[in-house]
Amino acid sequence: MKKGIHPEYKLATVTCACGNTFQTRSTVSEIRVEICSQCHPFFTGKQKLVDSAGRVEKFRRKYNMPAAEPTKKEESTETNS
How far from each other are the two terminal CA atoms of the chain, in whole angstroms? Predict the structure, then answer.
C-alpha cells in the first residue's frame, strides 16, 4: 500500500437513538444511528410477520379462482431394458 493516501482507521463510538453505545473501528471517530440491535424489532423478538398467504386467498376470491389443490408427485415406473 502507498503511504499517505489512505485514511486513518481509528476507534469509533457508535451511538444509537435509543441510547445504546458500542465501540468499533472506522475512519470517523463518532457515528450516530437511528436503530441498532438493542432496539430493532428483529433482534428484540417483537417482529410481526406479514401474512402473504392471506393475500393470495384474497386474489383468488376477487377473480373467482378455485383454490389450488396440492398435487402429489407421481412415481415413475420406467423399466430399463
Answer: 66
CA 37 from centroid of its chain's CA atoms: 13
pTM: 0.48
So what's the pLDDT on residue 22?
93
The dihedrals phi and psi of 62, each to the nearest 5 degrees, come to -65, -40
Q: Where are the domains of the chain?
A: 10-62
DSSP class per residue in 16-71: ETTS-EEEEEESSSEEEES--TTT-HHHHT------HHHHHHHHHHHTTPPPPPPP
Is residue 2 pLDDT above 90, yes or no? Answer: no
Is the pLDDT at 69 greater than 90? The verdict is no
CATH class, range 10-62: few secondary structures
What gap in Å lies between CA 60 and CA 2, rounded to an integer? Answer: 63
